[in-house]
Recover the amino acids of this structure.
């Protein structure tokens, strides 16, 4: 137990045990480049989380932290690293169980720990806890990404009792934070209203963010959050923890300001109507809570998460993406081969990489001519597409573009052949009237046959059309009347096993098609989380593509997800001119969903220029660092910039978000993330044909000037969106 792991701290994320002067006490620092989370046992071998914050320079001093606190804790385990219930604990538990004999008490004590090095940058700490009375074990996992300052934390639960144990609650992570006050930033929303932030000081008691929607679980509330410590963190100042659960189903995150004024954070799958029956020796692995910490504000924390996501989580995060033309808003369900052939020509004319055919291409007995029928019947509609998808793929190739397609494979319309053939594959109560969300029901992905069916939809598409280049995977309904014909007596497993079934399908898809771009969509942003994004290249933030709204929506998503994952399409929503719409969409992965034939010559010229600029800047936008300069919430103009990794090229987007009289950028906006020593040429790009920029030609300024004085993009009611490019001058 007191082995000194003499692995270099900078490599392993730091693990050591205290010296013999602290007999019986084991101290386990979980370190990353700048931060540390410290676990420590007490004399009774309870494992506690005693520190979370900036890494200390003298690692031996971690062992002394706990003794500096005189806070009251009668239970003795208020800051448990994974709080059991029914024994000493009186606070919100991380785990509640019913043993095989009906007893509901659990105590967990430290047994051992080990660190394995997964890769240069990645270490995995495993701590084993056991109940001294029952044959019951929990392993806590802390996977640290050293350079990125990111930790993924989860637990694995197992028992060797005589009979099933019921897991009544089974959190992924239980953090304990100390500070003079805590502020929670959370999000709420609905269709077309995603990512509306609220921030408030946490008061004593428990604040919960959760979802019980089953699928499309983030529709009302996502699991992403920020907790500021001591005072509300700003963009560049203050201590802040950013976190989210890597889970695409029901979640629950409790923030308990406890009797000792510390913050207990307990995150995991929502246990509401979801107790799990665990057989002897079966392992129950919880999904990871991913988090990062910065003492330099939300901006720094978000860049850490973004870097981590690109490097380790999303598919092909350091790779390339396809620009595209989508037909959803230009045709809805109303198209045929002739119309699509025109759109393929338009794709070429527009100058993007791919044409994405949206909803409406399938089903024959109940044709998919609206959202009330056909879902589940994944055969080409013979009237609309007599020559099938393969003809479209070829026709796309003839036009020198790629072809992608929309599916919603987890769902079914009651008006479909699938429903007629397999009513037992559908989640619905046998004895109650059906209740629909968008005229549809959810397929029962706990059933392996349904998993095969869903995998088959994707597999058939690619097998028949090997050149198919992109899939948009939608998910438009929540789960009402939760009941699985497959699960029989284990109905409470439905919410958990649904998500596991979904991930099994996605694993199979990725095993066979590792790199093909997949867009994660859920009636807008109803399912954006790192559990799912592990299998996707990008997501659809919202069906709301009004660019004014998107400035806010994309701004908030960017705290958690890198720009390369954010599919932003130029559409006809809103009242803004084409330039504004395109400039906003360029902040992430650019696409279009407009009628190209309606564009004027000038519009088309402008778009061609913008696409060229995008190509030139995509390295900075997709793989560089993002800096939020001016928030749309508190300013007339929002301003965001991206800098490439060499600090040689940057782009600054500025959008007017207030149209009252006299609004605009009256003072310069300070840039961030540049090299102060370098000189940059600043020039306005994406100018609409025939307009001139008030920004001087040949403006060359040092990074030092740009970061201390700034630059004025001259945003005003006559210049509602301004894009500036910065290039290093040698
Ligand atoms: C959802 C998606 C849209 C579109 C429609 C098709 O609403 O978010 O982008 O694909 O479905 O029915």
């Amino acid at each position: 137990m007191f082995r000194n792991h003499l692995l270099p701290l900078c490599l392993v994320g730091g693990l050591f045990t205290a010296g013999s002067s602290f007999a019986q006490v084991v101290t386990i620092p979980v370190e990353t480049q700048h931060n540390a989370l410290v676990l420590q046992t007490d004399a009774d071998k309870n494992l506690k989380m005693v520190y979370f914050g900036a890494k200390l320079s003298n690692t031996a001093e971690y062992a002394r932290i706990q003794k500096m606190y005189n806070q009251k804790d009668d239970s003795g385990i208020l800051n448990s690293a994974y709080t059991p219930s029914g024994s000493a604990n009186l606070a919100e538990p991380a785990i509640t169980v019913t043993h095989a004999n009906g007893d509901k008490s659990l105590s967990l004590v430290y047994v051992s720990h080990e660190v394995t090095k997964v890769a240069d940058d990645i270490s995995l700490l495993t701590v084993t806890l056991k109940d001294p009375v029952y044959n019951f074990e929990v392993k806590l996992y802390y996977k640290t990404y050293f350079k990125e300052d990111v930790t993924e934390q989860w637990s694995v639960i197992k028992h060797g009792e005589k009979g099933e144990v019921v897991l009544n609650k089974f959190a992924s992570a239980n953090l304990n934070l100390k500070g003079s006050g805590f502020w929670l930033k959370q999000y709420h929303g609905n269709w077309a209203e995603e990512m509306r932030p609220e921030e408030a000081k946490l008061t004593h008691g428990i604040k919960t963010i959760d979802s019980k929607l089953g699928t499309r679980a983030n529709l009302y509330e996502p699991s992403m959050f920020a907790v500021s410590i001591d005072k509300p963190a700003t963009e560049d100042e203050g201590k802040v923890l950013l976190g989210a659960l890597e889970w695409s189903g029901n979640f629950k995150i409790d923030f308990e300001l406890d009797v000792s004024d510390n913050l207990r954070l307990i995150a995991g799958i929502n246990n509401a109507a979801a107790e799990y029956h665990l057989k002897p020796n079966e392992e129950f692995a919880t999904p990871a809570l991913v988090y990062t910490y910065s003492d330099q504000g939300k901006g720094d924390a978000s860049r850490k998460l973004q870097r981590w996501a690109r490097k380790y989580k999303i598919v092909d995060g350091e790779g390339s993406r396809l620009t595209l033309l989508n037909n959803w808003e230009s045709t809805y369900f109303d198209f045929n081969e002739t119309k699509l052939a025109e759109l393929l020509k338009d794709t070429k004319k527009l100058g993007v990489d791919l044409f994405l055919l949206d909803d409406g291409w399938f089903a024959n007995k109940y044709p998919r001519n609206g959202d009330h029928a056909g879902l589940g019947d994944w055969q080409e509609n013979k009237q609309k597409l007599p020559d099938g998808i393969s003809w479209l793929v070829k026709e796309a190739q003839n036009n020198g573009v790629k072809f992608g397609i929309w599916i919603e494979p987890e769902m079914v319309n009651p008006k479909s052949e699938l429903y007629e053939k397999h009513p037992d594959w559908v989640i619905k109560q046998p004895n109650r009237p059906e209740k629909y969300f968008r005229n549809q029901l959810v397929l029962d992905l706990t059933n392996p046959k349904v998993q095969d069916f869903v995998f088959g939809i994707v597999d058939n598409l690619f097998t028949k059309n090997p050149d198919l280049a992109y899939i948009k995977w939608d998910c438009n309904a929540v789960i009402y009347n939760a009941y699985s014909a497959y699960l029989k007596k284990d109905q409470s497993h439905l919410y958990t096993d649904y998500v596991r079934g979904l991930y099994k399908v996605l694993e199979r898809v990725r095993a066979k098609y590792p790199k093909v771009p997949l867009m994660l969509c859920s009636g807008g942003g109803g399912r954006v989380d790192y559990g799912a994004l592990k299998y996707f290249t990008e997501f659809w933030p919202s069906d709301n593509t009004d660019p004014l709204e998107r400035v806010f929506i994309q701004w908030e998503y960017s705290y958690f997800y890198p720009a390369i994952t954010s599919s932003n399409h130029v559409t006809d929503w809103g009242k803004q001119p084409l330039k504004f719409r395109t400039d906003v969409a360029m902040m992430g992965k650019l696409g279009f969903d407009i009628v190209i034939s309606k564009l004027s010559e000038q519009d088309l010229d402008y778009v061609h220029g913008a696409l060229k600029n995008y190509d030139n800047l995509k390295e900075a936008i997709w793989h560089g660092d993002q800096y939020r300069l001016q928030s749309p919430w508190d300013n007339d103009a929002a301003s965001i910039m991206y800098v490439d990794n060499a600090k040689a090229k940057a782009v600054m987007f500025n959008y007017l978000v207030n149209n009252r009289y006299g609004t605009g950028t009256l003072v310069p906006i300070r840039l961030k993330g540049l090299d102060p020593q370098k000189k940059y040429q600043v020039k306005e790009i994406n100018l609409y044909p025939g307009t001139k920029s008030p920004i001087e030609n040949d403006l060359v300024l040092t990074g030092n000037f740009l970061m201390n004085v700034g630059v004025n993009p001259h945003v005003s009611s006559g210049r509602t969106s301004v894009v500036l490019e910065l290039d290093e001058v040698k």
In short: The first helix runs from residue 9 to 12. Confidence is low (pLDDT under 50) at residues 1-23. Residues 186 and 225 are 5 Å apart (CA to CA).
